Amino acid sequence: MAEWGEYYQKEDDESGVFEMFIKGEDGEPSNFDMTMQCVRSVYTSKIISSDKALVALVFYGTEQSKNPRNSFKHVYVYHDLDSPGAKRLQDIDKLQGEKGAQLAEKTMGSGETTLGEALWCCSNLYSDIKLQLSHKRLMIFTCKDDPHGGDSAKDRHACTKAADLKETGVVIDLMHLTKPEGFDVSLFFCDIVSPPEDESELGLQTEPSRKLEDLQKRVRAKELKKRAQSRTAYKPLAIRLYRDTNEPVRTKTRYFHAHNEGTFLPNNMKRAQVYGKKQIKFDDPGLVLMGFKSMERLKLHHHIRPALFIYPEEEQISGRSSFVDVLHLFQFNPSVFVTDYFHLFES
């Protein structure tokens, strides 16, 4: 949302003073051109990174009024709250430069500044959207620190509408631009802008933006929604303590026979899987030698998978080297083959 009353001001009936269209130092663009470039960068980033984002552009302090139901004077909704596209980028490009100033003068003109009406209009734009919005942010681009010229009634009206927007979850940010006599945020906007959500977020900046890079940096910092990548578990897990000794309680499990109530030890219990109406017991993982058979008993359809390499390892099981040596000797007999089964995983 940008104020047009400070961009175009009538000094008398014959001459016009474009305060925001004055070029900056060292060839810097005017404040209005910087604003339009920032708006264009926001449109472009939303088109690329978030196609479901909704963006609107509202001018206040204009002579012409264009808003839903035209119920707010001096408020011109240049772009409704919708997904940005190529057509909107072309509209923003037309507002830049000297031709853009003439087009804006012809289209909107200059009128009375009423920030409260503009905030009310933005509130209606949010309420007209039937979709569930994850976050809502309102950026105010202005170089006028006292938009109402000391009118207390308009100031209170603007503060009331700003408070209503904050209650609905709208974050209001001030993107104030430089002016010759300086920008004092304590005059009015300190009560309008939302406080920072956390310590890492930039709050209200007292110094105005004098260069395009500074303004774009502030806009990018506010534009992107901050999300936590990880959280530290500060709350420890609950530990049960024995009330007499204040020692941690340890869980012990005992198994008893269903008929004679005898105690079962871990080595007395076996795990099984019911298969074919029978309980199939799971053995420990490993290689079990079943015997030797004649090569005539080995058929082609017995081949299930490629062969596995077996190597001895005395550190885990003693005698494995001798066992492998015996198997190796029997393998030299071409008339027999080894029959065994191999448990790979433990149940």
TrEMBL record:
GO terms for biological process: DNA recombination; double-strand break repair via nonhomologous end joining; telomere maintenance. Residues 19-228 form the Ku70/Ku80 N-terminal alpha/beta domain. It holds the Pfam family Ku. Keywords: ATP-binding, DNA damage, DNA recombination, DNA repair, DNA-binding, Helicase, Hydrolase, Nucleotide-binding, Nucleus. It catalyses: ATP + H2O = ADP + phosphate + H(+). It is found in: Nucleus. Residues 236-326 form the Ku domain. Its main location: nucleus. One of its GO terms (cellular component) is Ku70:Ku80 complex. InterPro entries: DNA_bd_Ku70/Ku80, Ku70, Ku70_bridge/pillars_dom_sf, Ku_N, SPOC-like_C_dom_sf, vWFA_dom_sf. GO terms for molecular function: ATP binding; damaged DNA binding; DNA helicase activity; double-stranded DNA binding; hydrolase activity; telomeric DNA binding. Its EC number is 3.6.4.12. Belongs to the ku70 family. This is DNA helicase.
